[in-house]
Amino acid sequence: MKSCSIQIIAVLLFLSYQSSAQMDIQGHRGCRGLKPENTIASMLHAIDLGVQTLELDVVITGDREVLVSHEPWMSHKICLDKNGKPLRRQDEWSNHNIYNMTLFEAQSYDCGSLGNPDFPEQEKIKLSKPEFSELIQTCEEYVRSKRGKPVYYNIEIKSTAEGESIFHPEFDEFCQIVVFALEGLVPVDRVIIQSFDTRVLKYIHSKYPTIRLAYLLESWNVSLLEDEIAALGFTPEILSPYYRILDKNIVKKAHELNMKVIPWTVNNPEDMESMAEMGVDGIITDYPDRAFELFDKYNDWGQD
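Above: the chain's sequence. Below: its structure in token form.
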């Protein structure tokens, strides 16, 4: 019983050290648990909650504009058409492919009024998917108006070999369009580009070596980490695995390779605690409010 109490105290002390001041609590798609995902409203609310890194996804329209969206099509789950009518799942790829639309057409969809059935706390608001530069500019102006700390942007390029010329341009053109859209919007030291697509990581590293990169992983064996990095040909600044595949050995090995570890998408306080115990450098979460509450609580406990 005594050893158990000592262990609990040790965990609490560790969590107090890993407070929200040290942890990079990244708002996933802004704060998807609370506001419609990947919208300006979601990003601004995440900033209000104290998030310093905004995580978002980008796709390309038919007129080569950058749209903030997770899927390269309009999802029946969260979007209504320009007439306010629901979409059919079987029509998403054929009739609602964003790569076949102009920016104007894509923004005629309402992707906030339905809400998201997976996130019952999410507020329902009539919103369109924002154009990338508009979102960045609005966030930058909002932070300046609040005299807050500058925010960082963790931008996922959602490309696949199978999706080229169907849902998006070839990966190198995709990268170029996004990088060009970033020019003049925000200093490069506040930009992270993340991707599951290693071609994207290699291309950005080769052409724009000052941009920080995050390697997204969904399934993986820790014993293969060094092989994976060797295949890349360089060491990315951040390793971002699915949180369920993470353990202390992966964190330790990544740190030995000088990579930060920021897992996705960590929503339950118990899992947040578990990630902190492993020594991660941050988390990506749909509920940044929960993360701040958790880590600030332990920080306050440590100061009593």
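The chain has a mean pLDDT of 92.
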